[in-house]
UniProtKB/TrEMBL annotation:
<keyword id="KW-0813">Transport</keyword>
<dbReference type="GO" id="GO:1903785">
    <property type="term" value="P:L-valine transmembrane transport"/>
</dbReference>
<keyword id="KW-1003">Cell membrane</keyword>
<feature type="transmembrane region" description="Helical">
    <location>
        <begin position="20"/>
        <end position="40"/>
    </location>
</feature>
<feature type="transmembrane region" description="Helical">
    <location>
        <begin position="46"/>
        <end position="65"/>
    </location>
</feature>
<feature type="transmembrane region" description="Helical">
    <location>
        <begin position="135"/>
        <end position="159"/>
    </location>
</feature>
<feature type="transmembrane region" description="Helical">
    <location>
        <begin position="72"/>
        <end position="92"/>
    </location>
</feature>
<dbReference type="Pfam" id="PF03591">
    <property type="entry name" value="AzlC"/>
</dbReference>
<keyword id="KW-1133">Transmembrane helix</keyword>
<feature type="transmembrane region" description="Helical">
    <location>
        <begin position="171"/>
        <end position="192"/>
    </location>
</feature>
<protein>
    <submittedName>
        <fullName>AzlC family ABC transporter permease</fullName>
    </submittedName>
</protein>
<feature type="transmembrane region" description="Helical">
    <location>
        <begin position="198"/>
        <end position="225"/>
    </location>
</feature>
<dbReference type="InterPro" id="IPR011606">
    <property type="entry name" value="Brnchd-chn_aa_trnsp_permease"/>
</dbReference>
<comment type="similarity">
    <text>Belongs to the AzlC family.</text>
</comment>
<keyword id="KW-0812">Transmembrane</keyword>
<dbReference type="GO" id="GO:0005886">
    <property type="term" value="C:plasma membrane"/>
</dbReference>
<keyword id="KW-0472">Membrane</keyword>
Amino acid sequence: MISSPAARQFLQGAKDGLPFHIVIWPFAAIFGAIATQAGLNVVEVMGFSILVIAGSAQLAALQLMTENAPTVIVLATALAVNLRMGMYSASITPHLGKASLLTRAFAAYMLYDQPYALSTIKFEKEPDMNLSEKLGYFFGTAIPIGVAWYALTLIGALLGERIPSDIGVDFAVPITFLAVVAPMLKTLAHMASALTSVVLVLVLSFMPYGTGLLVAACVALVVGAQIEVWMEKRKDAA
């Protein structure tokens, strides 16, 4: 019987993260297959997944690499797709920021969409959780999904051509983002930023090498920040 509160929270986090595996498993396997079909060897594919651990950025970078895009565009696009990680870090620091340096470093590495979304919702619902319980829950959501991402990427890379790359798991990325982002659109600034990014990505789709995404991300951040400032001024005036 597990008596440690942190251990119980770890198991609860792993349980809460189970629905995401439905998407992660085929997504990771297809990425591994596509990457090997694009010319990367197994070591390069696994290095890609282990170092980046961000499916959307990996797919965006891989597509640009196959199109022979300039290296600076590949890096800039991957960074733009992952800009949200900086906001995730700032948001979750009040909860995990008092952990040891090594623990914070590992948490920073494992900070991606699914554990961030599940953890922030959990911490808001249960504000009395202590640091060890919060860390237990966070790692309970993050580690099993991360291990699944590595394992299925490896399987996809090893099977290579035997996994068809056109079996229609493209839906995995938008479905995952919708599941993660939708519950967090709580303010006018959030919704305006999301709407701005969606509209601009569509309008600027003609731009080469996906650079429209870079523009959309930057403009959406500015719009969200400006609305936050405007709302704060209105609050102070009231």
